[in-house]
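I am sending you the entry underneath: sequence plus fold tokens. Let me know what the token row says about the fold:
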Amino acid sequence: MHPKETGLADLIHRLDRLAALGEAALSRLKPGSQRSAVDFTTTLALRWVGGEDGCLTAIGNPDLPSAEDLLGIDRQLAILERNTRQFVEGLPSNNVLLWGERGTGKSTAVRSLLSQFGNRGLRLVEVQKEQLFALRSIVEALRDQPWRFILYCDDLSFDEHEIDYRELKALLEGSLEAPPENVRLYATSNRRHLMPERLLENTDEEEIHPEERVAEKLSLSDRFGISLGFYPFDQATYLQIVSHLAKRRNIAISTAEFERRALHWAGSRGARSGRVARQFVDDLAGQLALEADDSGKKA
């Protein structure tokens, strides 16, 4: 065979192999290929990978916080837990929107539900905002399963030009297809209505009926049956959270010095929240460990 022909044949062979590998990789991402591979009996947390032709994959080491570590949001937790219990027990229940101040425990509250209801059939499926256009595929992957699924979308919000929220509206209410009885959506957001609101919304000269645009924005958040607001913590609550976390870490330091450092940390961050409290305790625990190590070396 001529060298050129040999080279061409080799190239074709390599391309065929690459095509075969590509098809195998794609087949592993098709909806029907890996859905059955997920063992819902032992898998508590999952995420959707890909778009409409994506698949469910297990989260190997899920973060399962305890509700006991969530302070200052007792009312919100009680409502969230009650609604989730209704859902798990097959009773009427609602989709939930948790909105408000950053770092106040919205996401942690949702994730803590697995610690309470995971052994009763609850599973958490993480869905990114960018994947909302694939909601129909995600729901179809879960509809016929005997488990109860919460679709968890963290930090959800939309700009005015985005249209993915229409898929979300259809899932919540408004579609001809009945929503699945075993799926609910829990979303967190820093925005109460998920979309931007402007001071001059009602005086827009470009629209004859600007109130209709306002109604369009409100219609999305209105489709969540339960809306829970999370607000900034006062100083007493912040110090209570910091103290609770410090006890869990066995941090030994005088109360006055501890509170002084905690308040200085919050002041430098410009916020008092559960997240800021946890970050302070992490930093303090690290500092004290280094100091103890240095003292041991000097001795």
